[in-house]
C-alpha cells in the first residue's frame, strides 16, 4: 500500500521536528495566511479556523496530498496573547502571565486536498507560570528572543524555566503540533503512523493460499 503524500503547512522548525518523529516522509510549504482574528471570534475558534486556512492555502500546490495545518493562541482572562513581535510586547505578556494559568490552545487540521475534506481538532494545554521577577523575564527574553512564539513562551527551549506546571493530553501540543491527535487524524484518513504488519502478512498469506488452491484445482483438472 502506497502512502499518500504528506505536507506540513508551516515553516516552523519545531513543528517540522515534531512531525519528523512519526517517521513518515513529508514536505513543507509556507501558507502565508493573515492571522488576524475575525470580529467577535473566540480565541479557540480563531486557532481552529487558522489551522484549516493554513492547510487550504497550500492545497493548490499539492492537490492529491494530506496537508497538516496548526495554529496556537495563548488565552488569559478571555484575552489572546499572540506572537509578541517585539521585546517590549514580550515583556508585557510575561508580566501579565506570571503566577497565572494560561490556556495554550492549539488548533490542528488534516486536510485531504483530493477530497476537499478537513478534519479539525482543538487541543488545550493549561500552563501555570512561575511568579517571575522583572529581572528573570529580562534575562529569559535576552537569551531566548521568543518574539515569534505565542505568549513569548518558547517551551522547547529556555522557556521551560518559566513554567511551574502544566496540564494537557499531549506535551507536544505546547510546542505547536499535537502528535497524539494528529496520529488519530492520520489513521482516520487511511495513513496511520503505524501499519498493521501482521495484517499485511495475513493478507499475503491468504493470497498465497488462494493461489495454491487454484493451482491444485487446475492440476486436478489436467490429470
Write a structural description:
The protein is α/β, with parallel strands linked by helices and 223 residues long. Helices cover 39% and strands 22% of the residues. It has seven helices and seven strands. The protein has helices at residues 13-20, 43-58, 87-97, 134-144, 171-175, 179-188, 197-222, and strands at 6-8, 27-28, 66-76, 79-81, 101-112, 117-129, 163-168. Strands 1, 2, 3, 4, 5, 6 and 7 form a seven-stranded mixed sheet that branches. The longest helix has 26 residues, at 197-222. The radius of gyration is 23 Å and the shape is globular. The two termini are 38 Å apart.
Into which percent range does the helicity of residues fall?
25-40%
- What's the Cα radius of gyration? 23 Å
Strand content: 15-25%
Instruction: Report the structural category.
Output: alpha/beta
The shape is globular
Low-confidence stretches: 205-210, 213-223
Number of helices: 7
Separation of the first and last Cα atoms: 38 Å
Mean pLDDT comes to 89
Order of helices and strands: EHEHEEHEEHEHHH
- Describe the largest sheet: 7 strands, mixed
Using DSSP, what is the number of strands? 7
